[in-house]
Design a protein that fits this description.
160 residues; alpha/beta; Rossmann fold; five-stranded parallel beta sheet; 18% strand; globular
């Protein structure tokens, strides 16, 4: 299956977002591994999309997921994770990045709103300074209790 038009490289995204800004659209950015997409991810992405007109998702590459989560991850390869995210109506663009953190992507995207889950200490949110420096905001969304990819993997392993 062909890649969705939502899946873009960073240079392409930069041009697209400049057009969106000219049209007065608010750009929202969030990022993550999205390894086994679950209801917590979906609710967070939907909530993030309501904070602006364009939702950009930074997706950790397979290599960066392994660096962050360990050698057994990701469960789902990046091209499939990206395709699943692209199927969500609330997601406008997806950019895969190879670094363990999204600072380079956030610096290029220059979002109006940066969204992370509430389990992050607000002062430790990567990209916070970049967004706030240009007058943007950082929003912490509540987590869905007892739902995470790690919990799902543990339940699957216990069932085997």
């Amino acid at each position: 299956m062909a890649m969705s038009k939502k899946n873009v490289i960073l240079e392409e995204l930069s041009v697209i977002l400049e057009r969106c800004r000219v049209q007065g659209q608010r750009i929202v950015f969030t990022n993550g591994c999205f390894d086994l997409l679950h209801v917590g991810h979906v609710r967070s992405l939907q909530a993030a999309r309501h904070l602006g007109e364009i939702l950009v998702v930074g997706l950790n590459s397979d290599l960066s997921v392994s660096q962050i989560k360990g050698s057994q991850r990701p469960i789902t390869p990046e091209n499939q994770r990206s395709e699943i995210l692209a199927a969500l109506i609330c997601v406008d663009y997806i950019v895969i990045f190879p670094e363990p953190d999204p600072l380079r992507v956030i610096t290029v995207v220059q979002p109006d709103v940066l969204v992370k889950s509430a389990d992050w200490n607000p002062q430790e949110i990567i990209g916070r300074e970049v967004v706030e420096k240009r007058g943007g905001s950082v929003v912490s969304l509540p987590e869905v209790p007892a739902i995470s990819t790690t919990i799902l993997i543990e339940r699957i392993r216990a069932a085997l």
